[in-house]
Specification:
Elements lengths: L28 H12 L3 H18 L7 E4 L4 H12 L4 E7 L5 H13 L4 E5 L2 H13 L7 H18 L3 E3 L4 H4 L4 H4 L3 H11 L12 H10 L3 E3 L9 H12 L12 H15 L4 H10 L5 H7 L10 H11 L4 H9 L12 H6 L1 H11 L5 H8 L2
Parallel strand pairs: 1-2, 1-4, 2-3, 4-5
Helix pairs in contact: 1-19, 3-11, 5-9, 12-15
């Protein structure tokens, strides 16, 4: 997908990205947002000091317990390296994998290798695949860009659910704005209210085992139960490429081919559905962040953008697998693919509440989150 209009002078964000704006020097507001986040969450000595302070709190909270935190694992780079980091700082994590029926063989092996080598207990939360399949198809029928919302929401809900059961107050997350960037809402927004609305309209299977993540649950988990999410890579000198090399060397970990490609449906959603149906190339976000963080040069990022986000020779095989696993016919898949493109604004959600009450809600949000959420920074600078 070619670049559209102006390209940020510092990254490779372009005018295809919703909400983008440029200053007189050609620098985008996404680049300035990155700078603001980097200032709010410094690395180096200051970041390490803050992380060590958090480690002390985590250890103190679970002093006499078998575990003192939870880490969601997918077999990908971030969560695998986070297990290593947690053990290295003396934490006692419980690893939790959400099995939606789409995990790749490589991902499953990676999870087993990491938890076995680090002597970390693993709990796999399995949801009835018929429910996941129905939700996947519902989002596709709905014509929304980000069709993997059900998995995103379920992972959050499961981590909190298990944290409550184990009496734990901390969830460690492998997200890192320096290597992933900040996604525009128009590309990836979704929430529990939206899921219920989409499923009511397009779903056929009753949801009995699927754990939805609603606004009420967010308040309950964070405010009432006092469970906090911590992002260690915001503070530590984490480099994704170096982490991959380390994991391969020390743990015989295997790479799976791309950002979030450890899950087959997520791979399809990012690399094919978004790109071919909506003209959305998320690499413009992730590679821009990696340029600004010093993980790669702008020249190398532009060179990567000359290639498709998926392997053209294997695309037909991937699509055939998705069609078969979703119990669709090829004709049905093509009808869905050609359906009208929709926005998250076309369905009920919490978005207008969360975005419209940002300033008013800050005192309350401080009771739920340890630090100001990345999404709040985005709403303040981009919308």
């Amino acid at each position: 997908m070619p670049f559209q209009g102006r390209i940020c002078a510092r990254g490779i964000w372009d005018e295809s990205i919703p909400g983008i704006a440029f200053d007189e020097a050609g620098v985008s507001n996404y680049a300035r947002l990155f700078d603001r986040l980097a200032k709010a969450f410094p690395r180096g000595e200051k970041g390490l000091s803050e992380w060590r302070s958090l480690v002390q709190k985590i250890n103190a909270s679970g002093k006499n317990q078998r575990y003192n935190c939870i880490i969601g694992v997918s077999g990908g780079t971030d969560s695998s390296y986070l297990l290593h980091v947690a053990r290295g700082f003396g934490l006692k994590p419980l690893a939790v994998n959400f099995d939606n029926g789409w995990n790749s063989d490589i991902a499953v092996k990676n999870i087993k290798k990491m938890t076995t080598a680090l002597d970390i207990d693993l709990e796999t939360y399995v949801v009835n695949y018929e429910e996941i399949k129905d939700l996947n198809k519902s989002y596709m029928y709905a014509g929304l860009p980000w069709i993997d919302i059900p998995t995103d929401l379920a992972i959050k809900a499961v981590l909190y659910k298990i944290a409550i059961r184990e009496g734990l107050k901390f969830i460690l997350r492998g997200n890192d704005f320096r290597s992933e960037g900040t996604q525009p809402s128009e590309w990836t927004y979704g929430d529990g209210r939206q899921l219920s609305a989409v499923h009511r309209k397009f779903g056929k299977v009753k949801l009995k085992t699927f754990p939805n993540y609603t606004l009420f649950k967010l308040v309950y988990y964070g405010f009432v139960k006092g469970i906090k999410s911590i992002y260690p890579f915001y503070y530590l000198d984490y480099n994704k490429a170096k982490a991959q090399d380390f994991l391969k060397k020390i743990y015989a970990w295997e790479y799976y081919g791309g950002h979030h490609h450890e899950n087959i449906f997520t791979k399809f959603a990012i690399a094919y559905w978004l790109y071919e149906k909506f003209g959305i190339d998320k690499r413009k976000i992730t590679l821009s962040a990696q340029i600004l963080s010093g993980e790669m040069s702008r020249r190398d990022a532009l060179a990567q953008m000359e290639k498709l986000p998926y392997d053209k020779d294997k695309a037909a095989e991937m699509i055939e697998y998705v069609i078969k696993k979703l119990d669709l016919t090829k004709d049905e898949f093509m009808r869905i693919f050609k359906n009208k493109k929709r926005s998250f604004k076309d369905y009920p959600s919490y978005h207008f509440i969360l975005s419209g009450m940002t300033k008013m809600a800050m005192p309350f949000l401080k009771l739920i989150f340890i630090h100001k959420p990345q999404s709040i920074y985005k709403n303040e600078m981009i919308g």
